[in-house]
Amino acid sequence: MNQDARHAQFMERIERGEKIEATDWMPDEYRKLLLKLIHMHGVSEIMGAFPEKEWVPKAPTLKRKLAIMAKVQDEMGHGQLLLRVAEDLAAPLGKGREELLDDLLAGRVKFHNVFHMESPTWADAGVIGWLVDGAAIINQAALLDTSYAPYARVLKRICAEESFHMQHGENIILTLARGTKGQRQMLQEAVDRWWESLLFFFGPVEVTPAAQRMIDYRIRIKTNEELRQQFLNKYVPRIRSLGLTIPDPHLRYDEKQKKWLYTQPDWEKFGEIVRYNRGPKSEERIGLRRFAHEEQRWVREAMVRAHKMQAV
Amino acid sequence: MADRREYEVFEVFVRKKKTDAHVHVGSLNAPSPDIALTTARENFLRRENAVNLWVVPRGEIHETPCDEGDWFARELDRKYREVSGYSENGRLWKTYRERALYLEEIVQDLHPPSQGNRPRPRRERT
């Protein structure tokens, strides 16, 4: 069968709503789009643990410490599941986990803008759990029906755990919202700090050619803007109900257009942050990741050797 | 590539209860079966309970082709193998003023739900 016929047959499968497995034939373009998406998703889970991990030693109570530690562990676990899916896609291209992680250290793969930012107060830890995870959950839940079956299976497990993260984040901010004047102030400042990053998180308004191809292949179903609107629907009323202010004087729901109008985030600034790892915390966190990856290499190698010697 | 230092892929199967079969939950990378078992617990059982775990090197698993639906094709109507193939029993029993008996009813009678919400015994026909 020639390539065109194979491609046409593949598209028929996609259009019938069939799910694709790692061992099925797939167009190179499909493989590369998926790999780019899942690789980025996987390393974002790992880098996403860093802003919160900074709060493990400083959590205000033992219960909070255990809970945030559990969350950090979940994010690392999600990273492992996603990298596993990425590895199977990357195998025909001669890449394994080492290479996928090297890409992160060398700046060849991006991770979400929000994880380049500072989390200076406990309220930031709360807002990350509440709003950053909230945004991430909308993104991930939208992917549950993706055409790539191994990704769909992993997302199902991840989303189940995210439901704990949602409650965890809400509980921290509800406690702060009911706290002292100083605590409420701290919460407001954290919301102010994160708002613009959260809008950027969903990506550009226009549907880029790559995004359109992902929609054609049913890798994803919704556009960036649809997901951002969903986020605003869910979270704007909740933020306001706590008596907090959203730092955007132009934010309003337009009844005629049936959508939220908002001030655009600084696309250029955040674009540079994710492209060149130029955020306030990018270098420091990648440095920690590099340290863990390189300083523990001898352990990984020793374990492989020990098993080989045992097998002899 | 002669001496790959990479970990091996293991598929993970979890048995949640003694009376359940192992169920495939995903895969992981590990340098040995021992570490694979520990990693499996950390990656897949942070919340759920289980009584047993299997890890199997991926290369040891044999599978049917994924994109060949034909392998599972059913050329014949298999109603005769199914409960639903015998729905006329209910109608036939009516002649004898009885009703069809189903497995669920037997199981329920032998394993009544705990006290409190136990259904009242069905009044026997006389």
UniProtKB/TrEMBL annotation, chain A:
Cellular component, GO annotation: cytosol
Molecular functions (GO terms) = phenylacetyl-CoA 1,2-epoxidase activity
One GO BP annotation is: phenylacetate catabolic process
Name under which the protein is recorded: Ring-1,2-phenylacetyl-CoA epoxidase subunit PaaA
Q: Which organism is it from?
A: Melghirimyces thermohalophilus
Its taxonomic path starts at: Bacteria, Bacillati, Bacillota, Bacilli, Bacillales
Automatic annotation (TrEMBL), chain B:
Q: Sorted alphabetically, which Pfam families does this protein's record hold? A: PaaB
Q: Give the superkingdom in one word.
A: Bacteria
User: Could you identify this protein by its name?
Assistant: Ring-1,2-phenylacetyl-CoA epoxidase subunit PaaB
